[in-house]
Amino acid sequence: MSEDSPFRPALEHALHHALSHLENLEHRPVTAYATLETLRRRLAKPLNHASMAAERVIDELVADTEGGIVGSAGGRFFGWVIGGAVPASLGADWLTSAWDQNAASYACAPAEAVVEEVCGEWLKDLLCLPSHASFAITSGCQSAHVTALAAARHALLERRGWQVERDGLFGAPRIRVLSSDQFHGSVTQAVRLLGMGTACVQGLPSNDEGQLEAATLEAALRDTPDVPTIVLLQAGDLNIGAYDSYSELIPLAHRYDAWVHVDGAFGLWANASEHYRHLLAGVEQADSWATDGHKWLNVPYDSGFAFVAHANAHRAAMSHQASYVSYNELVREQKDWTPVWSRRGRGFATYAALRELGRAGVAGLVERCCEAAHALAVGIAAQRRVELVWTPRINQGLIRFLDPRPEATESDHDAWTDAVTEAVLQTGEALFSNTTWRGKRCMRISVCNWQTNSSDVARAIAAVAEVVQAKCAERVC
Ligand SMILES: *Cc1c(COP(=O)(O)O)cnc(C)c1O
Asked: 132: exposed, middle or buried (C-beta count within 10 Å: 0-12, 13-18, 19+)?
C-alpha cells in the first residue's frame, strides 16, 4: 500500500476522530451544547479560494462541529425514535462510500445488487412477511411509504381502468386513505408527493389502546363502498407503540377491496422476537409494509425498507420500463423498485448489521430495548409527583410530571412536564423528547439503541429524579 496515497491522511484522521467520538460518548453530554450562533460563526466561513489539505478539512470539520453533534449514537439517547449503528454496519457504511457504487442497476454495482437481493430475502424471513413479496431499500420509512403507496395507487386505479403512470391523476377517481387518528406525519407527506392530497387521509377515532376498531373501520368502508381505498394500519405508533388488530382488520378491508398498508417504521421489528411476535399476528396478510433500518435495526442513516405483496404493482409504479417490455429477470435492477435512480449502495450496511447481529441478535436487541424502556418508565415513575401515563408494552412509554402546587391545573402540569423534560436535557445525562398524547403533554421514553444498558438506565433515572426534586423544592418554597 502506498504511503503517499491521497486518501490515507484524510481517512486516518477520520478514523481517529470517529473512534474518539464513539468511545467518549459515555463521558460527554448526550445533548448538543453549542449554540446556533456558535455553530454558524464557526462553520459559515467564506468559501476558500485555494485548495486545502484533505486531512485539515477533516480536522477543522470536527473542531467546528464540536458541541453540535447530539449523542444519538450512544446509550443515553431516548428522544424520538432514533437508533445507533452496530459496528459492522458502520464499517460497511464507510466501505459503501469508499467503493462509491451507483446502486441504480446491476451494471454499475453488481455486488450491491446481489447484496440487496439477499437483504430482501433475509428481511422478509426475519419480519415474517410473505416470501413472494417484492422489496426495495429506500432512504427511510417515509420513502418506503411513497414506494408502497405508489404501488397501491397503481393497483387501485388499474382495477378501475385508469393507468396512473401514463395519465397521471387529473380526472382519475379520488383515492382515500382510512386510518386511525394515530398515523404518522410521514404518511401525510407521502400522499402529498403522490398527488393524492393530504385531505385524502381520514383519521378515524382510535380506542384507549390507540387501536382502530373493526366497527369504526367497517362503518367508514360501508359508508362509501365504491371509493378506491387504502387502509393504513399502525405497527407501533410513535407515542405508545400501539398495534392494530391485523387478523380482524385486514380481512375486513379486503372484503371491501381495499389495499392494506402497514406503517411499521420500528414496530414491525417486534416480529423478530418470539416474545413480542403475538402483537403482529395476521400482519402478513397486508398488501404492503414500510419499515426503517436506521431505527431499531441500528443501521446508520439513511435506511428504510418497503415490501409489496403484489410485485407487479410495485414494479409498474416504480419502473420506467413499460410493463410489456420483457427484460432479464435474472438481474434485479434496483431502479425498477425505488423512487430514485442513482443512489448509494444502501444494501451493504443492512447486510452487515443482519450478519453481525444474526437472528438471535436482532431478537435480543428488540427485547433489551423493550426491557430498558420498561425499567426507565417504572424507575422514573417511582418518584413523587410523577405519573406513568403509558407503561411500555414495547420500547415506548409516556411520563407526565405534576406541578407540586396544590392549586395546579392540567395546563400547569403540561407546562411543568415540558420544563422538567427540558431541565433533564440540560443535565446532559439523558435526552428525552416530548409529545401531546390525548390532550396531555408527556415526556416520551423511547429506546432504540443497541448500546443502552442497565447503567445508562440507572443514570437516566437518577438524572430525572434529581431534576424533579430540585424543581419541586424550588416551586414550593
Ligand atoms: C419514524 C417514523 C416514520 C418515518 O420514518 P423516516 O425513516 O423518518 O422517514 C413513520 N412512521 C413511524 C411510526 C415512525 O416512527
From this structure: exposed
Q: Provide the terminal-to-terminal Cα distance of the chain, rounded to the nearest Å.
A: 69
pTM for the full model?
0.96
Nearest-angstrom CA–CA distance, 373 and 350: 25
| Average per-residue pLDDT for the chain | 95
Q: Are strands 431-432 and 396-401 parallel, antiparallel or unpaired?
A: unpaired
Ligand 1 atom with least separation from CA of 144? 9
- Write the pLDDT tens digit of every residue in 31-70: 999 999 999 999 999 999 999 999 999 999 999 999 999 9
Residue whose CA lies nearest to ligand 1 atom number 14: 265
CA 128 to ligand 1 centroid distance, Å:
20
User: Distance, CA 435 to ligand 1 centroid (Å)?
Assistant: 15
Helices 185-193, 141-158: crossing angle, 10 deg rounding = 50
Pick from 81, 138, 142 the residue to mutate for probing ligand 1's pocket: most ligand atoms within 8 Å of its CB.
142
Instruction: Tell which one of 82, 146, 240, 292 to mutate to probe ligand 1, the residue whose CB is within 8 A of the most ligand atoms.
Output: 292
Q: What is the pLDDT of residue 476?
A: 74
Q: Which residues are bridge partners to 261 per DSSP? A: 232, 288
Q: How far is the CA of 145 from the centre of ligand 1 (A)?
A: 9
Distance from residue 291's CA to the centre of ligand 1 (Å): 8
Q: Rounded to a whole number, what is the largest CA-CA distance in the chain?
A: 78
Cα–Cα distance measured from residue 92 to residue 373, given in angstroms and rounded to the nearest whole number: 29
Are 423 and 342 spatial neighbours (Cβ–Cβ below 8 Å)? no
Hey, whose CA ends up nearest to atom 12 of ligand 1?
265
126 lines ligand 1 (CB under 6 A): no
Is-contact 113 322, C-beta < 8 A? no
Report how far residue 449's alpha carbon sits from residue 263's, in angstroms, rounded to the nearest whole number.
20
Cα–Cα distance, 118 to 354 (Å, whole number): 11
CA 62, distance to chain mean position in Å, is 27
Q: For 287, phi and psi rounded to 5 degrees? A: -95, -25
Binding site membership of 81 for ligand 1 (Cβ less than 6 Å) = yes
pLDDT exceeds 90 at position 247 = yes
Distance 310 CA to ligand 1 centre (A): 23
- Residue whose C-alpha is closest to residue 295's, from 448, 186, 76, 102: 448
